[in-house]
Amino acid sequence: MLASISNEVEVLSPMTILISNEIAYAMHTLGAKSDLLSIIGSWGDTLPSDQILNMLKEWNADNKR
């Protein structure tokens, strides 16, 4: 179960947004799954960072090789 999550989406700096976009593009180029790309794309847009972190941890745990 997810830890306590805030409902507020913080405003990311323009540089952080650019970095996030480049990370998503690189991951797409490497064949990342769309569910992972959507988590990254939601960071600073529709979901707060703490929820993104929890979702990434869950995704990593579920997708270990």
Features:
60% helix; 65 residues; mainly alpha; 3 helices; single chain
What secondary-structure arrangement, pairings included, does this model have?
Elements: H1 14-29, H2 34-42, H3 49-62
If you had to describe this structure to a student in words, what would you say it looks like?
By secondary structure, this protein is mainly α. It has a domain at 32-65. The protein has 3 helices and no strands. The protein has helices at residues 14-29, 34-42, 49-62. Helix 1 (14-29) runs antiparallel to helix 2 (34-42) and helix 2 (34-42) packs antiparallel against helix 3 (49-62). The longest helix is centred in the N-terminal third of the chain and has 16 residues, at 14-29.
Task: Sketch the major β-sheet.
Answer: none
Class of secondary structure makeup: mainly alpha
Unreliable residue runs: none
Helix content: 55-70%
How many DSSP-defined strands?
0
What order do the helices and strands follow?
HHH
Output mean pLDDT. 84
Radius of gyration: 12 Å
* N→C terminal distance: 22 Å
General form: flat
Beta fraction: under 5%
